[in-house]
Design a protein that fits this description.
The complex is a heterotetramer, with 2 copies of chain A (about 375 residues) and 2 copies of chain B (about 400 residues).
Chain A lengths: L6 H17 L2 H9 L6 H10 L17 H13 L8 H13 L2 H13 L4 E4 L15 E4 L3 E12 L6 E8 L4 E7 L5 E5 L7 E12 L3 E2 L5 H37 L1 E2 L2 E2 L4 H30 L4 H30 L5 H14 L4 H12 L6
Parallel strand pairs in A: 1-4, 2-4
Antiparallel strand pairs in A: 2-3, 3-7, 4-5, 5-8, 6-7, 9-10
Helix pairs in contact in A: 1-4, 2-10, 4-7, 5-6, 5-7, 7-8, 7-9, 8-9, 9-10, 9-11
Chain B lengths: L9 H18 L17 H16 L18 H12 L13 H11 L2 H12 L5 E4 L15 E5 L2 E11 L7 E7 L10 E7 L5 E8 L2 E14 L3 E2 L5 H15 L8 H11 L1 E2 L2 E2 L4 H29 L7 H24 L15 H11 L7 H12 L14
The chains are: A alpha+beta (about 375), B alpha+beta (about 400).
Chain lengths: ~375, ~400, ~375, ~400
């Protein structure tokens, strides 16, 4: 047993922290979020240089060959920002989908581009705004002479506007789900920004978009299992990002209890204020240790499907609730879009939905551990 | 006990018919503006114009402050008449308070109680006529919840006070006519004995109003730079502001009560009935039904606590801890409902686009959950006041101030 | 609108409070609960004298003809005790079942006896320990020459050991539910005390118990609707009892914050302690007003089914949670069976289950308001 | 990072085999006593006897305190050996701490750190041998959470202390051999500087032990009436008790950590798998599955926080707020699990009768939820300590004491 980071990881962590300090300090990130800027192409390119895109991919594809835990350590630092951009959606999830389900040709064609940032491949999976999962795939894939014709609208695609390509989940006439790689520039593809109390989501519509048979990732009608396999490996890294976000909120809130004086004393002397911080600590540490244990399982070849779902349930809930508790401490000041808490508050609401809500993942966790007889 | 909000004497029945017909006529064409989660949900000019105009029309009929004396712009009517007006306008998701875009609803009673005859004659008629947008201007950047620690100074200079200082987190997206504010009239004085209430025309030189972009929408910072306010606008007398505050803030802090049904639930039911997932209406989904059940219970408890406080206010027997208890509950319910709306509507709950579903207000509900955890205090100060009113750890219980 | 009690109700309240002070003061009740005494025949008889048994029944049956609210006011005071005994199960619920579903002959035979305390009729409805409702009626009613033969075991019957008679719910061969009035002394009826962290429940088993056709309450296979109709009228009165219990807990806890000194000051000066009391206040007042509004609806002829279910969900939850919050304040001292809180704590656990859990009633509430298409 | 609890050097593997075989042999016939929610769940003589005997056997093998010096009854083994013992015994739902029916697990380390050589030689061998039942005797009726406000007096009289006073809420259903307690050695002294720790033979004249019947089972009140305790049993020196307490209580307050898996979840799964309602296993019921999911998450978070604290303890880098955070979480999880067990099992959750289902412990779980909201402090004092360790509202953070 050893629960500390190793020297390499401490180094990676420092590199990431320094990167953020130089390229995206807190007030700058706050400003991006207020302006709803969810992707910074220049910064994204720079992170390719540091090796954060496709970090867990094998060397042969330009990846870093890093462990899941290494990658989690870096993403934890990014989450402290919270640095916006398709680091996870493309650099981790799409990369993993292609690694798990792509043909050798697809891997060779796309993985290096993901790693060097020249292609931004974004999964566009659910159509429905409420539920995540295969049932919410409604975009149709109609068989054509050369492949498929896709039609449908993905209402909320995280990082959709950053995409150069999409991995589109679509339903075939036989009722199965395929995954198709689609060029954003292909005729019939339209991306529309979505405003509101969230960040990074775009509506992506496919109107009679033709894709060749070679665009398929994974076997015909067997797309969803590829997604599931990739999620097991990818989700814990998204969770590490959320853990970093919670850590940042925790520290900024604790610090505020020392410096903010009301009724003649630092507010941290009031038990009620203390309790809001205690509540954050529990969410933070719960998310942290569930996530890192799952990352360790991934690195150790131990079954991690239930753990990945559990991590997503716990980390998204932790992020969402930590923001609430921080708002209780910061009160009015914390609701100003100029305050660093607001970037987190907005993002936490989006990530609560992203790739399935906590309820969805709690059920997936239990289903993975104790499969239902009647399924 | 009688929980009925419909008194049924013949006179009152006739009045209800009259109000109902009048509202139907005057709401025509504006049904889509019936309800917003808050004044500033939409922040559009159309809604603002509509509400201000409606306030003017209601004021002209003396229906905004029906029980107040005729000479100040009221109608001298009975409490039953006020019930009729509150309950009928509630059917449009509005209330006599929220059509205003102003805090006159809180200001007028305080003026009635603490104003001089001269002040009443000058200020009340246009206010009760619904003509004025008045903002409450209380919070300061340093003081926060500790409003008694007021740093905005008002120093007497001849017939004026010279006001300097800053207030934050007030108002909404369009400017006010008057400001109603707490000032420190005696910087050397003892805490709670050094304050005054001022009614300040918003157009006086030296006043700057700057938008603040907040989670809940637009609010403002107000800067006072050597603003000369006529001394006759001091309400309640020299250094007497804390006393004005005490009876006045109880109204803001839940003690005013409410007869409203919260429209969120009905809107959410309608949304679930017309929305399908996987071939079935959301209303048939057990998870959705469970969330709705929890929400209904919370909203019913909130409604009944509001009703209780309303009744206690009007029989002039203030409920000791009812005001802050309501406010605390309301904040927590708002937070839970924010989460519930997201659980039911998913991403759509984060999207205010009217084209997605008719209910722009869902998105407002989501952000106002955490956003309105403060305002007129915080969860923490609410509980502080409840504890004093219950006399926890103290030999005696603090009374609620008699509301005005 | 008028939210205060009227003069008569204030008088009834005082009579009940005085009765408790004289017959069952707090330390005596505490002792009964520690000894698991759930029924005091002498006290029960005396309450008949004050008119609390069958209070809402018409005069002609010996009842008080009282309004639901009047009855609620009295039960609120009993709940403050909490006075143990089949006041509700027999005096309200069984009475209501007989009034709603009984034949004229049954009403004439039984209601006066319920009112004068000479018969204690106890509903024995669910067999299953977990769920309440018609699905959990498993006792079989087999058609016989003269009526039915009952066989089965009701695992937890509240006030079962106080019974002279039972109203037994049983399933016929056609799958319907009947209600049968059964003499406790009938051959084949056995009552077994149940120990544990609860009070008042007994196991009642029926082994080939013969009942005549005239024992049926309500029509053949239409027993459950009779139960449902009676529950709408009865549950709010049980809720008033729980409201009184919460009120008692609230007051004893608040008082303790004034008298108990730790760390050099009354514990009520600590914000954390205050917050436990605030939490009780919200549960108490929520339960109070939901319950009394429902009682008012019953008295005003307004549909109250959803309200009755809502009241039970809210009041049972409030009672259960109020005990928890009170335990947070009383700490060690409050866990001693000699402390008055313990009677409440034990009873709250039993009432949480009794006649359906909060979840059951929340669903029944929503189902009453918005019936499912697929039922 | 490495979350593995199975070190796999050949030497350690061999030791694991040895322990596993030994436990299999010594648990034979007592499998039904494998786990109780707490020492006192069952309060029956059979379980008590079994556990005390097992402690004696483990002690005889020097496995109760494997890393402690041989001369005091330990085995001088490595931390890896301790892991093996903890994880293997955990499979029986026991731990090196909970087989005891004693608090030696807390007492021995304190004696190691603060005891004189003479005290160590006298007390440690029988304690590490598992022969003694030692109770911790801390809470007083007046003091409650404020343990420093100790009213039990120990006044020096020659070679003895004369002890007078009362302790409550301690022990269990069968009597102890020794008491380990806080006494006021200098009634005129300053708070925190007037206390001593005494190790008191339970059989001394003047000691009366009375059962208290509590929600969680039997505990006791202990009365000291002019009890003469040899002065050589004062641990840590004159008026130094608060220092002993500080490092010692951190262990009780969660800082000791744990490598245990909580057996409740597995038992509940087994119960749901074999229990049907309406023709279907409870494991197929979505409501049940949802409750189980929430429980699993809570228990996993608790397990991992315990593991974290265990690790921090053994690498001698105490986690600053980890101890009280674990304790606070554990209390809240216990309370939530009490409700969850009732939601899943219904009335049966309130019934300890073994014939209902094999799991007598479910009923204990229900009453220990509210029942164990205190013990070694309360929810409120846990959070007080966390806040100090985090330095909330303070210029600096208080360190966790180095545990012993």
């Amino acid at each position: 047993m050893d629960l500390k980071l190793n020297d390499d990881q401490n180094m990676m962590k420092k590199v990431a922290a320094d990167f953020l300090k130089a390229e995206a300090p807190s007030h700058v990130i706050t400003d991006w979020y207020q302006k709803k800027i969810a992707h910074l192409p220049e910064i994204y390119k720079k992170t390719a240089g540091v090796g954060w895109l496709g970090m867990t991919l094998p060397d042969e594809f330009g990846g870093g060959g890093s462990s899941a835990t290494d990658c989690g350590v870096v993403f934890e630092e990014l989450g402290r920002g919270p640095l916006p951009g398709p680091f996870f959606s493309c650099g981790v999830l799409a990369a993993q989908i292609l690694l798990d389900g792509g043909s050798a040709a697809q891997q060779k064609a796309w993985l290096p581009k993901i790693c060097d940032g020249s292609a931004i491949v974004i999964p566009a999976l659910s159509d429905d705004p409420i539920q995540f999962g295969p049932k919410s795939v409604a975009t149709r894939a109609t068989k054509s002479a050369s492949g498929f014709t896709l039609s449908g609208t993905k209402r909320y695609v995280q990082d959709g506007d950053a995409a150069s390509h999409f991995i589109c989940a679509a339903r075939t006439d036989s009722g199965g789900v395929i995954l198709a790689l689609v060029d954003r520039q292909a005729p019939g593809v339209a991306v529309k920004a979505v405003s509101g109390f969230m960040i990074g989501a775009a509506e992506v519509s496919f109107t009679n978009v033709a894709v060749g048979a070679d665009a398929l990732i994974g076997a015909l009608d067997e797309g969803w299992p590829v997604v599931l396999a990739a999620l097991t490996k990818a989700l814990p890294i998204l969770c590490a990002y959320q853990v970093g976000a919670c850590q940042e909120i925790f520290e900024m809130t604790n610090e505020y209890t020392r410096t903010r004086v009301v009724f003649g004393q630092p507010i941290g002397r009031f038990q009620r204020v203390q309790d809001h911080c205690v509540d954050i600590s529990i969410h933070l540490d719960g998310a942290r240790w569930i996530t890192y244990e799952t990352l360790w399982k991934l690195d150790s070849g131990i079954a991690a499907t239930a753990g990945a779902h559990q991590s997503k349930a716990v980390a998204s809930e932790a992020y969402y609730q930590s923001c609430h508790f921080a708002h209780m401490v910061f009160a009015g000041a914390g609701t100003d879009y100029k305050h660093p808490l607001m970037a987190h508050s907005v993002l936490a609401h989006a990530l609560y939905q992203y790739l399935g809500t906590p309820l969805f993942h709690k059920r997936a966790m239990i289903d993975a551990m104790y499969p239902r007889k009647t399924a | 006990m009688d929980f009925s909000l419909q008194p049924d004497s013949p006179e009152i029945s006739a009045f209800r018919q009259e109000v109902r017909a009048w509202l139907a006529e005057n709401m025509k064409g504006s049904e889509h503006l019936r309800w917003s989660g808050n004044w500033s949900t939409r922040e559009n000019a159309e809604e603002y114009k509509f509400r201000r105009a409606l306030a003017g029309k209601l004021g002209a009929k003396r229906w905004l402050f029906p029980t107040y004396p005729v000479k100040y712009g009221g109608a001298g009517m009975s409490l039953d008449h006020q019930f009729v007006l509150e309950t009928e306008i509630d059917k449009y998701g509005l209330s006599l308070g929220s059509v205003f875009y102003t805090l006159s609803r809180l200001v007028a009673p305080a003026l009635m109680k603490f104003g001089t005859e001269e002040q009443k004659a000058e200020f009340l008629p246009p206010m009760m006529g619904g003509e004025l947008a008045v903002w409450q201007v209380l919070t300061e950047p340093q003081g926060g919840s500790d409003v008694a620690n007021c740093q905005t100074k008002a120093i007497r200079d001849g017939d004026d006070y010279i006001v300097n200082g800053q207030k934050v987190l007030v108002g909404h997206h369009l400017p006010p006519d008057f400001l109603w504010t707490f000032v420190c009239t005696n910087p050397a004085g003892k805490r709670h004995e050094n304050l005054g209430w001022l009614y300040i025309p918003a157009t006086l030189p030296g006043i700057t109003i700057q938008h603040m972009h907040l989670m809940m929408g637009i609010k403002n910072a107000i800067f006072f730079d050597n603003v000369r306010v006529p001394a006759k606008y001091l309400v309640g007398g020299e250094n007497n502001g804390w006393k004005v505050a005490n009876s006045y803030l109880e109204l803001e802090h839940g003690g005013g009560g409410s007869v409203a049904e919260h429209p969120l639930f009905a809107r959410l039911i309608a949304h679930c009935q017309r929305t399908n997932f996987d071939g079935e209406s959301l209303m048939e989904d057990q998870d959705v039904r469970d969330v709705l059940a929890e929400m209904l219970i919370d909203l019913d408890v909130q409604r009944l606590m509001g009703l209780r406080n309303f009744w206690h206010r009007y029989v002039k027997q203030p409920h000791s801890y009812g005001g802050p208890q309501f406010l605390f509950l309301q904040r927590m319910v708002r937070l839970r409902n924010a989460e519930r709306v997201q659980k039911i509507c998913g991403y759509d709950a984060l999207n205010p686009d009217d084209s997605v579903h008719e209910v722009a207000d869902f998105e407002y509900t989501v952000r106002s959950g955490p956003g309105w955890l403060h305002g007129g205090g915080t969860l923490d100060t609410d509980r502080l006041i409840i504890a004093r009113r219950l006399g926890l750890g103290r030999p005696s219980q603090e009374d609620a101030p008699t509301t005005v």
